[in-house]
Specification:
Bound molecules: protoporphyrin IX containing FE
Number of strands: 0
Helix content: over 70%
Number of helices: 5
Number of domains: 1
């Protein structure tokens, strides 16, 4: 499942770009006091869809790499606890929040209320995601920023 790991690693950047774009539109709309447009709705939807893809890839990894079977014995090792519990739990919360934000954008509301709701929900989601990514500088569970070496020089099992 090395290929899925590489995909999950790289697709994270699509999620990060789309979440920053969605948050930027929500905060920008609030500040500029403009109309809530179809493009704002789409920005929230694209972010939610990218989370669907990442959730699917993550679940494949979770099952195929047997993270579920490391519990409950592995709870005392921080790397195991991170991937088997914390990453899964926090990212599922982020996935739900991204969908709540995208769904709410389809209900008709005053533009200011729409942007405020979108900014709040997307802002919390962005925080949860940024705190739950295994950044390389995390001592116990750090992972590379880009798994490009595996793509170019093989090693994909
Ligand atoms: C939504 C539910 C998610 C699940 C169930 C999930 C699951 C997992 C699992 C099981 C691993 C460990 C891979 C291994 O077996 O070594 C992993 C790694 C990782 N996840 Fe997630 N994940 C999810 C969402 C996300 C999101 C939203 C992001 C970032 C936007 C993300 C970024 C990463 C990164 C960067 C790694 C390290 C990959 C590597 O080793 O190169 N995950 N994830």
């Amino acid at each position: 499942m090395e290929f899925v790991l590489v995909l999950h690693n790289l697709f994270r950047w699509a999620v990060v770009v789309l979440m920053v774009y969605a948050l930027g539109r929500m905060v920008g709309g609030l500040v500029q006091k403009r109309e809530f447009t179809g493009q704002d709705r789409k920005a929230l939807s694209w972010f939610a869809i990218s989370m669907d893809v990442q959730l699917l890839l993550g679940l494949v990894l979770y099952i195929s790499n047997g993270w579920w079977s490391t519990l409950p014995g592995g709870m005392s090792q921080s790397a195991v606890r991170f991937f088997a519990v914390e990453h899964l739990f926090m990212m599922v919360i982020a996935w739900v929040l991204a969908h709540v934000a995208a769904r709410g954008a389809r209900v008709s509301r005053l533009a200011a209320a729409q942007f405020k709701r979108g900014a709040l929900l997307t802002g919390i989601t962005v925080l949860v995601i940024l705190l739950s990514i295994p950044w390389p500088w995390a001592a116990s569970h750090g992972r590379p920023l880009f798994r490009l070496a595996e793509l170019w020089w093989g090693g994909l099992g």
